[in-house]
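Lecture 7 notes. Example A: sequence first, then its structure tokens.
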Amino acid sequence: MKKRKTFISFILAFALCFGLTGCGMAQELANSYNTKELSDEEVVLAFMEAYQQGDYEALKPYISEDNPLHLFFGGMDEAVGGEMAASYKAMHEKLKDKVTFTAKAVEGEEAWGTVNMTISMPDYSKALYDAMVDALTDQVENGTTAFHHMPGWIASGIEGESETYEETFELHVGNRDGNNVMDTNTNREFFAMLCGGLKPYLDASITTCTFPGEEGSWDILSQGDEIVAMINTESISAEEYSQEEQEAIVQTYEESMSTMDGIIASATIQDGSITATMGVDMATASSYALSNMGLISDRITAGSNGWLSLDSTINGFTQEGGECVTYNFKNAE
């Protein structure tokens, strides 16, 4: 995949150096051209060096526009990442010095740009998931906003314990518009690994839905369009019941919910009303049980991709008169 410098490129560099704007610009041109002439193995090594140094500009030429590393590295800039920027920076700090790897071009597969890479690095997937569940539990049981404030529990997850994984990948370097680029889809598992467990949260959001005139709300955590966790709070009048009956209702509600996997529930009595709060972790909750409860399809709905869809759910809520606001805690989309 190496390319020979043409006579014209040499003349252009010469002209820039001695006839136009000076040797500095000529050197920049030469450096740019040399970047394109790297072997496939050198492309992977140069990419990894930029990754470890946190040099987003040096990393960009080797990845296509749909790569998750654009969200990861671009989001480290507070002007873009907003409240998430500190977490992105903290994650990279945790990863960069603990990444070890070897890369070797596969002999005989030069036409496919194949490079074998063995890489070992930390992964915070479990710590991030546990932090989310802890925040969900805290908001349900204590009435905080811990789950809604995604930057807070993501930061906690990054401070948690990591697991170390080692993987071997067949990476593929392709040519796009004269540049050596590592295709996102072909190498997607490799790029996901470089995010250290953060990839599902790079496009995550919290959507809050309320219904004017009703006491209650929904906080919905989605990764892209897929709903992965949510909290529903509703209040009902209980003035017609005695204090003893109200307490029995609360106890029955909490006990019945406590037997269901992936569901955390709490209820309180105040000023003649019962406020019930239910948190759902879709990773462990039973879709069948949620459907029987009327939670799925009645209000939380599936999309065409087979998962519970944020877009479909928002559309359903707004058709019922609900108002929904989505937060990704960034300053730019």
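Example B, a different protein, same format:
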Amino acid sequence: MLQRLKNLSPLERGTAVMLLVAALFNGFLVSLNQTQDIIARKALHALDWQLMLMTMIWPVANFFSVWWGRVFERSCHKPRYFIVAGIIGRLVLVLAIWLTTMNEFLALLGLLFVSNSIIIPAQNSIYQRNIDPTRRARVFGLTLSLGMAVSIVVTFIAGRFLDLREDSYRLILLVTGICGFANAIALAFIKIQEPVTNRLCEPLNWKQTLLEPISGTLNLLKEDRHFAAFERSFSIYGMGFIMMQPVIPIYLVDNLKLSYTTNFLAKAILFQLGMLFLSPLIGKIHDRQHPFRFISSAFGILAVFPLLIVVSSLWRGYSLWPVILVFAAYLIFGIAMTGVNISWNMSSIFFAGKRDASIYQSVHVTMTGIRGLVAPVLGIALMEIFNITVVFVVAAGFFLAASIVSYRDWRRLKLPLHPGTDDEATDTELFLAN
């Protein structure tokens, strides 16, 4: 892996090494993110509405990302920003050693996801300022692969521990909190090359900080029509993705009655194998394709996942085939989500150009919160009114719609791969004319 960093400049290499260190610890957080719903359903006996709330915590916490992005943009002490987020949202997980109820678990997850909404836009500024645009997604792909490798190992060990002793989830959460804090510290050690804007860091005007992001978000989406179109596609995809989340643990735990190890093998390990082996390659493809074309392919492949789940749910009688189909579904899910994950993290930098990527990414993350208020409720409602199969059919429809819309946008927009080239204005005028 380090061999691939030789072609980087000294600044890029130093940044990439610290990002890899951060990714090493982030693997523990990724593992928890993939298994928290199974822990909730099996160990803490979460009710359907609690699973719905757990699914909503992540996007709702993301809703405030646009405010955190503005604070980071104007912060005079950016390393402190990472450290505070690490303490509040990651180190707090050590309290899980006393965890006994699902509601307490929801509270800890709330703090965890709030810290993620703070750190993700800030991390984008590191990639924007310290890594050349032709190599950003490739470096991100390397960090993603390392994180996935760690997550796969941690997930397997966690599954074995939980099958042997179910209350070991407390220890798992404690270790995750410590490693999550180490991830934030590693990011804090990265010195951002230069301010994104020409402004010097400014003292915070809290009234302006609270109100400006709202108008700023609306103005950004109004003025940057390309980015607004990108957000539209991701919102369509996001409805399908989020509406499945509270339903998946119900299907795996209640319908298939899988053990912790088998659940984690399907939902986390097989899913993450795609990210482990394909992230650098798909990151390289991302660097060479327009974001609209890239996500159109990713969303199209992703539609296969819920369709395979539908086939497994319709299988009658005792058989291993439903489990085999679920395993196949998660392998495909991992391949598709590798592309989605890279695009979700890197495309904001593309649209930002020379502007502050943390603001674009914070808007991108905040949009997740808006659909997160609706999608989980829709998923549970469809399951209660119809059945669990209908949820996956509707999710597949959202993925296919997002793929078609993205492809159509790509055909209409012929933007340069690196904004700022001479033909950008002409392309923008063509888009607005349509």
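Note on Example B: Residues 159 and 347 are 34 Å apart (CA to CA). Residues 196-200, 419-434 have pLDDT under 50 and may be disordered.
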